[in-house]
Amino acid sequence: MTTQMSAAKRGEITQEMQRVAAKENLTPEEIRSGVAAGQIVIPANHKHQSLNPEGIGLGLRTKINVNLGISRDCINIETELDKVRKALEMKAEAIMDLSNYGKTAEFRRKLVEMSPAMIGTVPMYDAIGYLDKKLEAITPQEFLAVVEKHAQDGVDFVTIHAGLNRQTIEHYKRTSRVTKIVSRGGSLLFAWMELNKAENPFYEYFDQVLDICAEYDVTLSLGDACRPGSLADATDASQLEELIVLGELTQRAWERNVQVMIEGPGHVPLHEIQANVLLEKKLCHGAPFYVLGPLVTDIAPGYDHITSAIGGAIAGAAGADFLCYVTPAEHLRLPTLDDMREGIIASKIAAHAADISKGIKGAAEWDQAMSTARQALDWDKMFDLALDREKAERYRRESTPTHADSCTMCGEMCSMRLMNKIDNL
User: Fold this and answer.
1) Which helix (H) or strand (E) covers residue 159, if one does?
2) What is the pLDDT along the chain (425 residues), one digit of tens a residue?
3) Same structural domain for residues 74 and 169?
4) Backbone angles phi, psi at 352, to 5 degrees
5) Strand partners, 64
6) Same structural domain for residues 294 and 411?
C-alpha cells in the first residue's frame, strides 16, 4: 500500500500534499521533498474519509493537538462529542482520543467519521479494557492487535512507547527521579515489562508495528515514556537514553516508508527548552517534534494552560512543530468544555507566537492587519481578526464607552483616537 512517504520518495505529489501546500502558501514540491526527507509528516490514514489533511514539520505553521476521551469516572460519550464539535469549531488541527474505559471503539469510530481534523490515539490506554484482561496477562501479539484495530478504525497517528526498552529501564533504575515515570502509557509498559521480566513488545516487535502503519499509512508518533514530569527531572539520563533509541527507531521506520514524529517533554525550565529541541532534531534526524507544553514551572495547578503556553512558544520558536495543548485542569481532573476552550486558545497563542519567530509565511501579516485595524478604531475588523472573536465581542459589549470610537479604559484620552484627529487637522 502506498504511503505519503513512499509516494514522496518516488517523486509523486499526492492530493494530500497539494492541499497542505495550498494551506501553507508553499509549492507542492516543497511539501513533497519535506515528506521524502522525513522532516514533514502528513498524518492521513487511508480509511479516514472525512479528513482535511494538515502537514506538520519544517517550514510549516505550528499545529496544535487537543486531548479528550472517556474515562472510568467520566464515561459520557455525548459530553466528549460536544468537546469534539467545539474543538473542530475552534479549528484545532488534531484531536487525540485518550479514552481508556467503556465503549472506546464506538467513540473512536464516531470521532473519525465526523472529524476533518487528524485523529491520534494511544493504543496502550485501550488495551486493558479492549482485551478485558489484567495487564500482566496481555501477550505481545495482543498489544499489536489493539494497534491494528485502531489503524483499521481510521486513526491517522498512534503514540507508541517503543523507546522504553530494557536498556532504558536500567538507566532509569540508576537515577533518582522526583516524579519517576509520569507517562501513563510508559508506566503501564514499565509495569508489564517488570511483571513479565520481558522486553517491551513494541520495541521487540517493532517491525510488526511498522507493517501495520505502512498498510494504513498511519503516522508513528514515538512516545516519550521517560518525559520529565517535574523540572527536577528535565533533560536527565533516562529522557536522553530513550531519545537516542527513538532516533534509531525513526531510521528503521523511514526505511519502511512509515512517517514519524517524536514526542517530547514535559516539564522543562525555560533555559533548557531550546537545548531539548536541538537534541531531538539532532538525535532523531530532523523528524517533526511534538511537545506536551512544555510546562515551565510546577507550581501553578489551575493555570497550567499558561505555564505550557509559555513553554510552547519558546519550543516552537526553537523548532518544535506540534504543540499538545494543556488545559487549566491539568493534574487536577478531566477537562470540561470550558477548560478545553481555554487550553486551545492558550496553545494557539503559543503556536502563532512561534510562527512569527520562525518567519512562517503570513504569520506576521495577521498581526499587521490587527494593528492597522486598531489604529483605525475599526472594531468590526478587530473582531474579524481576533483569535477569540467571542470573548473580544463580549468584553466590548459588557463595558460600553461614552465615545463609540474608544473603550472604557481610556475614553476621550484614547491615544489612537487623539492621533487620528490630529492627523486629520
Assistant:
1) strand 157-160
2) 799 999 999 999 999 999 999 999 999 999 999 999 999 999 999 999 999 999 999 999 999 999 998 777 767 788 889 999 999 999 999 999 988 776 788 889 999 999 999 999 999 988 887 888 899 999 999 999 999 999 999 999 999 999 999 999 998 999 899 999 999 999 999 999 999 999 999 999 999 999 999 999 999 999 999 999 999 999 999 999 999 999 999 999 999 999 999 999 999 999 999 999 999 999 999 999 999 999 999 999 999 999 999 999 999 999 999 999 999 999 999 999 999 999 999 999 999 999 999 999 999 999 999 999 999 999 999 999 999 999 999 999 999 888 787 888 888 888 988 898 888 88
3) yes
4) -70, -40
5) 323
6) no
DSSP string, 76-96: -HHHHHHHHHHHHHTT-SEEE
Name the helix (H) or strand (E) containing 157: strand 157-160
CATH number for the domain spanning 202: value is 3.20.20.540
Q: Are residues 377 and 302 in the same domain?
A: no
First to last CA, the chain: 70
Angle formed by the axes of helices 337-358 and 363-375, to 10°? 100
Cβ 252 vs Cβ 206: under 8 Å: yes
Within 10 Å of residue 282's Cβ, how many Cβ atoms? 11
Whole-angstrom distance, CA of residue 272 vs CA of residue 157: 28
Q: Of 358, 387, 402, which closes a domain? A: 358
Residue that is last in its domain, among 309, 327, 358: 358
pTM above 0.90, yes or no: yes
Do residue 383 and residue 247 come from a single domain?
no
According to DSSP, the residues that pair with 291 across neighbouring strands are 264, 323
**At 111, is the secondary structure helix, strand, or coil?**
helix
Q: Residues 182, 269: one domain?
A: yes
Can you read off the three cell numbers belonging to residue 37?
Answer: 526527507
Q: Residue 280: give the domain boundaries.
A: 4-358
Q: How many domains does the chain have?
A: 2
User: CA 69 → CA 122, 151, 219, distances in Å?
Assistant: 11, 17, 20
